[in-house]
Amino acid sequence: MTKTEIAHQALQAYVDGDRAALEPLIAGTFRFTSPYDNGLDRQTYFTRCWPFHEITQKIDFIRAIEQGDEVVVTYDMTQVSGETSRNTEVLTIRDGQITQVEVYFGWTLPHAASPGGFIDPS
Q: Which domain holds residue 25?
């Protein structure tokens, strides 16, 4: 699989509610960063982020750009409520597994979350 195909498969797992399809794509050394999360490990990522599959209805890919170990994907997500949003993610993929994800949807730098922590937006 190309890096773009791995990225698409990982995001499609959220639409399909298929964690078993996502698990082998996520490396043991995985780190996840977003405006609310700063370097989450694999276990924390699944605990915190996997529940979003319940509200994810559809993902439309806008672009995918591969360079070296990275693929940049931009997509529009439609939630079951009908709300839509656009995200861009930079995925680092090595040996067929995602080792790092950076999600961009409007954060500030430096990151407001402490390393390894997250911000509760509620």
A: 3-104
- pLDDT confidence of residue 106: 61
C-beta atoms surrounding 70 within 10 Å? 15
DSSP readout, the chain?
Answer: --HHHHHHHHHHHHHHT-HHHHGGGEEEEEEEEETTEEEE-HHHHHHHHGGGGGTEEEEEEEEEEEETTEEEEEEEEEETTS-EEEEEEEEEEETTEEEEEEEESS--SS-SSPTT-B----
What is the CATH classification number for the domain harbouring 45? Answer: 3.10.450.50
Does residue 59 belong to any structural domain of this protein?
yes
Residue 63 maps to a domain: yes
Mean pLDDT per 10-residue run, the chain (122 residues)?
Answer: 97 98 98 95 98 96 97 93 90 98 75 86 77
User: Does residue 91 sit within a domain?
Assistant: yes
Provide the number of structural domains found in the chain: 1
For residue 109, the model assigns a pLDDT of: 45
